[in-house]
Amino acid sequence: MIAVIYGSSTLNTEYSAQRIQSAFGDGIADLHNVKHLEIELVRERNYLVFISSTWGTGDLQDDWELFFPRLDEVDFHGKTVGLVGLGDQENYPDTFCDSISLLYDKVIERGGTVIGATPTEGYSFSRSKAIRGNRFVGLVLDEDSQADRSDERIREWVAAYRGAVE
Ligand SMILES: Cc1cc2nc3c(=O)[nH]c(=O)nc-3n(C[C@H](O)[C@H](O)[C@H](O)COP(=O)(O)O)c2cc1C
Questions:
Q1: What is the set of domains in the chain, with CATH numbers?
Q2: Which residues line ligand 1 (CB under 6 A)?
Q3: Closest among 136, 51, 125, 121 to 88, alpha carbons compared
Q4: Mean of the per-residue pLDDT values of the chain
Q5: Which residue, judged by its Cα, is nearest atom 30 of ligand 1?
């Protein structure tokens, strides 16, 4: 079972997380709000998806920010993690989806494997810490200015995740 773990302040991320869970298909993924998460769940699962919006200037969503230090209690060797960021490229073009770079660095630092990098084509922004090489470290969704693109992006990304782990 893939654990889809999200933090959401104004429900955009919660709604996206639900769509991601259902795109995986029946019985493949379960959904967890990081606000109520026990660290044990992260320890137990080998397949994870971390989803956070970006707040402040490039910060993790509040509940994720509180939980983030707990990730230091987990050995990520043998774990495969997909990252999903929500942001607003029109109003925050210099910190677009920055927060998932924090999750990326932590998972890598602790020995995990991150899958699901995506191309930056189709977005319009100036800077993002979520880019490594020339790709986003995960799926990037913008429910503020490109909501109409999200379904297709989710479908393609979930298919790639499933293809990489099956
Ligand atoms: C005060 C404020 C700060 C924000 N800062 C950023 C930011 O730095 N980078 C970004 O890409 N989006 C930023 N956003 C946009 C949110 O990440 C975006 O609206 C997201 O969909 C919110 O998801 P949530 O409601 O699930 O938390 C900000 C939004 C607000 C209201």
A1: 2-165 (3.40.50.360)
A2: 8-13, 53-55, 57-58, 61, 86-88, 92, 95-98, 143-144
A3: 125
A4: 98
A5: 55
What's the whole-number mean pLDDT along residues 153-165?
A: 96
What single-letter DSSP state applies at residue 147? G
Tens-place pLDDT, residues 117-150: 999 999 999 999 999 999 999 999 999 999 999 9
Atom of ligand 1 nearest to the CA of 97: 11
Q: Report whether 49 contacts 81 (CB < 8 A).
A: yes
**Ordered alpha helix ranges (H), the chain:** 12-24, 39-44, 62-67, 99-109, 150-165
Q: Which atom of ligand 1 is nearest to the CA of 96?
A: 11
Element (H, E) at 38: none
